[in-house]
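Subject: for your reference before the review

Hello V.,

The reviewers asked for a structural picture of the protein, and I figured it would be easier to keep everything in one thread rather than splitting it across files. Below is the amino acid sequence we used in the manuscript, unchanged from the supplementary table.
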Amino acid sequence: MKFLKYFLIALLIIAIDQVSKLLVYQHMQIGEEINVVGHWFRLHYLLNPGMAFGIRWENEFGKLALTIFRIGAMVGIGYYLYSSIKKKYHTGFLVCLSLILGGAVGNVIDSTFYGVFLENNALGAPIKWFHGEVIDMLYFPLFHLSIPEWFPFNPGGEFEFFSPVFNIADSSIFIGVATVLIFQKKFFPHHESEKTTNDHTSPADTTPSETETQIPTETQGD
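And here is what came back from the structure prediction:
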């Protein structure tokens, strides 16, 4: 049971991620945009052949290599979660690993199967398997600025925050990693205590050996 609850969290993330992607695929056209909350939260249907935030490997075998890397990372994270549960790590850390695992599996499903079942394989892909494009839809353009002409970087241009389009899987991975970084002292308190102990240890704190504590006795004459 102790293993099941954390893998169920990962499974829930996978289910939400895949349902959201398939709903967008069924009911939206690529490039279509729907305002959800004003103009700062929108659904914007995009296909991403690369990694999160549009990063990609520009070569013929880049997509295949990326998919294989994702599968390897997924297996590694799954095993690390299993091992961490056995070692009874902090509950918060285990939940974060579950979020990361769920997000990793969600994007692996897109890369591995969508090219075949949704026929959205990357342009020029030699095969459809392992060449599917990831469906992105979450878009948060919080504010938009026009850059003045006197500014040294991109004068007269436009700046938008936050411009990347991503999905539930990406969000789950980001939240898991960010939470571990923020609360690492709470998740791994023994590491901090060991570091503190080592920092405060000095030669004066060590216990002298028996031979070092012997005080020479003055020899009295007859």
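For the response letter, the relevant points are probably these. Residues 28-189 form one domain. Residues 91-117 form the longest helix (27 residues).

Happy to draft the paragraph if you're swamped.

O.
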